[in-house]
Amino acid sequence: MSITALYPGTFDPVTLGHLDVATRAARLFDRLVVGVYDAPPKNVLFSTEERVELFREAARHLRNVEVLPYTGLTVDFARRIDAKVIIRGIRAFDDFLYEYEMALMNAKMAPEIETIILMTRLEYSYFSSSRVREIAPLGGDISELVPPNVLAAVKAKIAERSRR
C-alpha cells in the first residue's frame, strides 16, 4: 500500500526549516505533496507560481516529492490528492497550540486523514518565513536561513521592489 502525505503551507519564502521537514517527511512516506497555499490571509513576497517554483527547485533532490499549488480547505486538497496524512512542522510551544487546534478541526472535517507533527531541528527553531521577509529588506544576512535558490530570488525581489 502506497501512502501519500501532504505538507501544506504558504512557504513565503521556503526556508531551510521547511526543507528539513519536507526531507524528513519524504523519508517516511511513499509520496509527499508539498501544497503551496494560493490565497494566504497575509501579504506575500512571492506569487503562488514563484513559491511553487522556489520549493520545487529547493526540493529537486527529493525524488518522491511533488510541489503543487492549492486553494480552499487543506483537507479538501488532501482528499483530491488521496493523502492519508497531513504533515505539519512546529518550532516552539506557540506553534504547537495553533497546530493542535488545527489538527482537531481537520480531524472533525476529515476523520480519515491523520495529522503528524514534526518538530523542527534545533538549528531551525528560531526563524520563520516572516522573519526572513523582515530581515532581508533591511540588508540582514539570510544565507543560513534559506536555500541558495531562494536567497537569489529574495535578493532579486527586493532589488525589483526598490526600483519601483
The major sheet is characterized as:
5 strands, parallel
User: Strand content of the residues, in percent?
Assistant: 15-25%
Number of distinct beta strands? 5
- List the strand order in the largest sheet: 3-2-1-4-5
How much is the average pLDDT?
95
Give the low-pLDDT segments.
none
State the helix count.
6
- C-alpha-based Rg, rounded: 16 Å
Q: Encode the helix/strand succession as letters.
A: EHEHEHEHEHH
Helical coverage, percent range = 40-55%
- What is the overall shape? globular
Query: In whole angstroms, how far apart are the ends?
Result: 53 Å
CATH superfamily: HUPs
What is the C-level CATH assignment? Alpha Beta
Number of domains: 1
CATH architecture: 3-Layer(aba) Sandwich
* Structural class by helix and strand composition: alpha/beta
CATH topology: Rossmann fold
Question: How would you sum up this structure, described in words?
Answer:
The chain is α/β, with parallel strands linked by helices. The chain has a single domain, classed as 3-Layer(aba) Sandwich (Rossmann fold). The protein is 43% helix and 20% strand. It contains 6 helices and 5 strands; from the N terminus they run βαβαβαβαβαα. It has helices at residues 16-28, 48-58, 74-80, 93-109, 129-135, 148-163; strands at residues 4-9, 31-37, 65-70, 83-90, 114-119. The protein has a 5-stranded parallel β-sheet with strand order 3-2-1-4-5, sandwiched between helices.
